[in-house]
Specification:
Oligomer: heterodimer
CATH class of one domain in chain A: Alpha Beta
Distance between the termini of chain A: 129 Å
Shape of chain A: rod-shaped
CATH topology of one domain in chain A: Alpha-Beta Plaits
Helix content of chain A: 40-55%
Number of strands of chain B: 0
Structural class of chain A: alpha+beta
Distance between the termini of chain B: 42 Å
Radius of gyration of chain A: 47 Å
Chain lengths: ~230, ~130
Amino acid sequence: MKKGKITISIVVFFITVMLVSSMFIQFRTVEKTNSMGIDSMRENELRQEIVSWKNKYNEIDEKLQSNNQKIEEYTNTIQNNQQASELIDNELKEYNMLVGKTNVTGDGVVLKLIDTLEQSFSASNLVYLVNELKYAGAEAISINNQRIINSTDIVSINNNQYILVNGERIVSPYEVKAIGNKDELDKILNFENDGFVPYYRSKGYTLDINFQSNVKIPSYDKEIILKYIKEEE
Amino acid sequence: MIFIAIILGCVIGLVLGNFAPIISYTYSSYLAIAIVAALDSVFGGVASSLNKKFDMGIFISGFFGNAILAILLAYLGQRLNVDIYLVAIFVFVSRMFNNLAIIRRYYLDKFRKRKIKEAEMAENNTK
């Protein structure tokens, strides 16, 4: 009887241990996974979740597409603007070249006017030469690297002692450079008897004329300020 | 003796259960059904011991057999896409209620018999 009771007690002990421990494992499992994690979701919940995510995805996809469209529009406008600004840039470059704000190079002529004891060049001679060159279609002219622009002055001061170009004093030898059609320049400058070169040579002036294919003329290095003129509206 | 075993078992089981690793959620439903089956066996054992019909072999085989069978049925139910585990829980819980009713009646009877005896004793004393 006593032996039977002991075995019963042992069996009951083991069974209780197993039951209680498994119950507590289960408690803890349920507690841990009670929070909304994907691992702990049932199939229906998962399905609902997928549906809601799909909806969200579609919404966001639509937004993305509209945003992409906007971006495309913006890039188009930017491109247009870029084209416009390129156009303006090119125009600006052209105008700068026209005004004389850029270093330029091209075919042309280089004249060297040298003062001698017998004859020296005056400012009016230079003005005449510049005028001749312009007549011959010169697109850019410089005297001793002073660029001749719209507002350039060529004046003599103190009874022809100094010559000022662009307000800077220049001295002999005067190097006059011009870019333009070589044939045209040649024709005008070397015009028989009346052209600049033969005329002044006949009068005893010393001057060289030299046609070059790569004449370099520097830019006008001062600011061009317009104070009084205004555009008429 | 048996009570000491039960209390000791509860304490050790509690400690073991608190330190054992938790199982994954997928299998926790199987463990739950095994626990319900085991509880059913325990209550059945208590009820039968009260009726002096307790059999160790039946108790142990019922304890493990029911638990394993419940797990297998639940697994089968999942494979068949039928919620068999619900039926198993229903059966086990209803049996648990039956056994609890037997236990309750036993102690209620005992209590009433004692009251009647006490009343008779009192009557005898007054006579």
